[in-house]
Amino acid sequence: MSWQENYQLWQDAELTPDMKAELVALAGDQDRLVEAFTRPMEFGTAGMRGVMQPGINAMNIYTVRQATEGLALFMDQLGATQKAAGVAISYDSRYHSQEFAYAAAGVLGAHGIKSYVFDSLRPTPELSFTVRHLQTYAGIMITASHNPKQYNGYKIYGPDGGQMPPEEVNQIVAYIEKVTDLFSVKALTQPELRAADLMQLIGEDIDQAYLAKLATVTIRPELIQKVANELSLVYTPLHGTGKMLYDRVFRTAGLTKVAVVPEQAVLDPEFATTPFPNPEFPQTFELAEKLGKETKADLLIATDPDADRLGAAVRQPDGNYHLLTGNQIAALMVNYILAAKQATNQLPADGCIVKSIVSSEFATKVAANYGVETRNVLTGFKYIGEQIEQMETTGKGHFLFGFEESYGYLVKSFVRDKDAMQASVLLAEVAAYYREQGKTMYDGLQELFAKFGYFQEKTVSFDFPGISGQETMANVMKEFRANPVTEVAGVAVTSTEDYQAQTTTAADGTVEKLQLPTADVLKYYLADDTWIAVRPSGTEPKIKLYFGVVDESIAASQAKIEKYQAALSPRLK
């Protein structure tokens, strides 16, 4: 159908009053109408995410029902035991999140599938835990993570608590595509669901189980006890789900001096104090820094609205704060975990950390210093979850830590997604480790730089908005493959990994097979130990350019990145 025909269908449909009003408001904006009604929202391995508005390419109650109908039809084909296991559902603080969660439960109930729905918002990692704890077949998380207020999203989790693997997602997508009439999807009301025992509310019962597991994350709790009266933290949930548990999480770990940023502990779908609630942005920490200076905090911690990502800033000698990158946080955590386990005779001979292919080699060097293997996987925490499952199933390898450069970390495998609650506890323990030595985490970072090299990374995003964005992005990637990168700013490329073609090509033309799954990613290794990657985002209309360098000083490393960025950026414009 044309966008005009799709638009007419929505005009003729019996929409909810608020949706009808929003559709009327769109009437004079043809660009937005074309964007909203030309083609359906893409449902990928990370689910779907989009602006909340009417349309087939948007987040609204009708597209949520359509996606859930696809999941329900998929589950209808499963064995009776798997279908009876049901689906766990959680949601964040965004507009319509609770409404979407209950809409999903209603559609599942119409298929006789029971849902376990949180009584109020909860973090994404707790949803992952819940799938495993209740042994449901699947999980649904309504969240747009760190996106601005206009967005919402829908993620599906599999039986292991990780995001649903690609094979199952492809089958679900096939069922979603069969749901051509969004307005005819049957959904039971909440009273109907409860009367038929097809929806069960959950909350404190799961919280207690999750908190009990979080209490096992600390490795040397005596360190925290020693400095508990001295170690000062500032925490901000950025108006999101971290507020629900942070106080109990920190108290359980023995941390007594934790101040919360009061303005950002309000569950506000407007994200009034931080329009981009992303813990990698300096602006996100402005209020935390102000409170940190008042309380002389050693460490500032921010979690994004669904509490799966964590950002941090550490106190410097002059009293100001240094914002850590995701890769630096990972290196500090890996060093502490391995040192602490070694000191307490808990470091296994087959220990292993897992990271994404676009994350720093900094943590890899640290791990190697302790004789610990690093495994690289494609971007997406589900791939880290797959490695954990493989280790636990085969008995080959012992999971110690997983991370992505985009501020996602996992310490223990009772969750199979990035978990900012776990990371908060561990990072506080890292701060205690340095505090006991009379040092700060900033000092600790400088020590790692001096020992392993001055690693620096940077990610640059190029936006491709609008209905033609996907096609333009595909053409950019085609151009990179048609005209291979053989040198960057005069430095030779020694090998190229093409994850779409599944090949590694050396400078002499030798080709070897890659062992990771297919993905639209190119990664270049340069003669000076630099790596560069080009990758379209899986959730946003962006192509990301990643740089990872190492040199003898921070200044030299930063100069390298600037040089390489200037050389390659024109190819993405």
Automatic annotation (TrEMBL):
Pathway info:
Lipid metabolism; Glycolipid metabolism; diglucosyl-diacylglycerol biosynthesis
Q: Which Gene3D superfamilies match?
A: Alpha-D-Glucose-1,6-Bisphosphate, subunit A, domain 3, Alpha-D-phosphohexomutase, C-terminal domain
> What's the catalysed reaction?
alpha-D-glucose 1-phosphate = alpha-D-glucose 6-phosphate
Q: Which residues form the Alpha-D-phosphohexomutase C-terminal domain?
A: 508-559
> Which CDD domains is this protein grouped with?
PGM2
What Enzyme Commission number does this protein have? 5.4.2.2
Q: Which cofactor does it need?
A: Mg(2+)
Q: Which residues form the Alpha-D-phosphohexomutase alpha/beta/alpha domain?
A: 41-180, 209-313, 326-452
PROSITE patterns in the cross-refs: PGM_PMM (PS00710)
Spell out the molecular function terms from Gene Ontology. Answer: isomerase activity
Q: What family is reported?
A: Belongs to the phosphohexose mutase family.
What's the name of the protein? Answer: Phosphoglucomutase
